[in-house]
């Protein structure tokens, strides 16, 4: 048993979709969350830059004594997960394997859409993971770079979001997909808007729930579960820019106040 915190990080707010599922499945676990709000989005960055940012975030979380780390960012997972697992002596998981597994089990007609940042789509990481499970599944990827800034602005359920979603998704709607992977942890915050545009006819795959289950399995396997099972976990938040804005938008999704939050100079790590 280990009562140290779990580290979770993302380029910004999106990782809160994963944190929400972790707190549901592992309510006794303490969590340190880092959102790299000064450098969001990661999706348009070069591979080398994303790797640098990921390692800085991991170094920061390790400095806080975390026992395991969730890379709650699809772009960082696609570009950095294997390198991070080889570099650090601590359990590290990402979000893509969980999303791919869910998509493979959800599709009925074996035509799956994947939306994500340019970095995630161009990496073809989802294709690789899905085809490990079923190489007969056809995958159609679509980069949706404006979705992240829309969420970060707090505009997820606005006309701006709906018009943008219509433009991005029209090609996928015409491709006979029956499942759509929300391949960026920001995108579940747009679920209502995306469902409206798709008229509820396509199953939306959110990797966050399966990622939380994978985390529980990793903690159990490594004997790292918190033994204070009767006590709710404590959550500490760090961001690289404008903590007030993060707290204001983040509470709308978590349905809880984000009070213990600090700004950190992530470049030092």
From TrEMBL:
Substrates-to-products reaction catalysed: L-glutamate = D-glutamate
Transmembrane segments: none
Pathway, per record: Cell wall biogenesis; peptidoglycan biosynthesis
Similarity-based family: Belongs to the aspartate/glutamate racemases family.
GO MF annotation list: glutamate racemase activity
Domain of life (superkingdom): Bacteria
Protein name listed in UniProt: Glutamate racemase
Role this protein plays: Provides the (R)-glutamate required for cell wall biosynthesis.
HAMAP family membership: Glu_racemase
EC id: 5.1.1.3
Keyword Isomerase carried by entry: yes
Binding site for substrate: 10-11, 42-43, 74-75, 185-186
GO BP terms, alphabetized: cell wall organization; peptidoglycan biosynthetic process; regulation of cell shape
The entry's keywords: Cell shape, Cell wall biogenesis/degradation, Isomerase, Peptidoglycan synthesis
Active site: 73 (proton donor/acceptor), 184 (proton donor/acceptor)
């Amino acid at each position: 048993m280990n009562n140290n915190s779990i580290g979770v990080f993302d380029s910004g707010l999106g990782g809160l979709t994963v944190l929400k599922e972790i707190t549901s499945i592992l309510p006794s676990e303490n969590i340190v969350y880092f959102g790299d709000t000064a450098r969001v989005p990661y999706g348009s960055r070069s591979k080398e830059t994303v790797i640098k940012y990921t390692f800085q975030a991991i170094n920061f979380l390790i400095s806080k004594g975390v026992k395991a780390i969730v890379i709650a960012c699809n772009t960082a997972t696609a570009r950095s997960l294997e390198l991070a697992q080889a570099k650090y002596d601590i359990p590290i998981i990402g979000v893509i394997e969980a999303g791919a597994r869910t998509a493979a089990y959800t599709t009925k007609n074996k035509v799956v859409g994947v939306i994500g940042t340019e970095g995630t789509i161009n990496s073809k990481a989802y294709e690789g993971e899905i085809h490990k499970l079923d190489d007969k599944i056809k995958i159609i990827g679509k980069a949706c770079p404006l979705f992240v800034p829309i969420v970060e602005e707090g505009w997820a359920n606005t006309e701006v979001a709906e018009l943008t979603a219509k433009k991005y998704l029209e090609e996928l709607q015409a491709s006979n997909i029956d499942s759509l992977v929300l391949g960026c942890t920001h995108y579940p915050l747009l679920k209502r808007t995306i469902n409206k545009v798709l008229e509820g006819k396509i199953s939306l795959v959110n990797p966050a729930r399966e990622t939380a289950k994978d985390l529980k399995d990793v903690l159990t396997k490594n004997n790292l579960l918190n033994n204070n099972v009767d006590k709710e976990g404590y959550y500490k938040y760090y961001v690289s820019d404008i903590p007030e804005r993060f707290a204001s938008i983040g509470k709308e999704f978590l349905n809880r106040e984000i009070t213990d939050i600090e700004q950190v100079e992530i470049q030092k790590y």
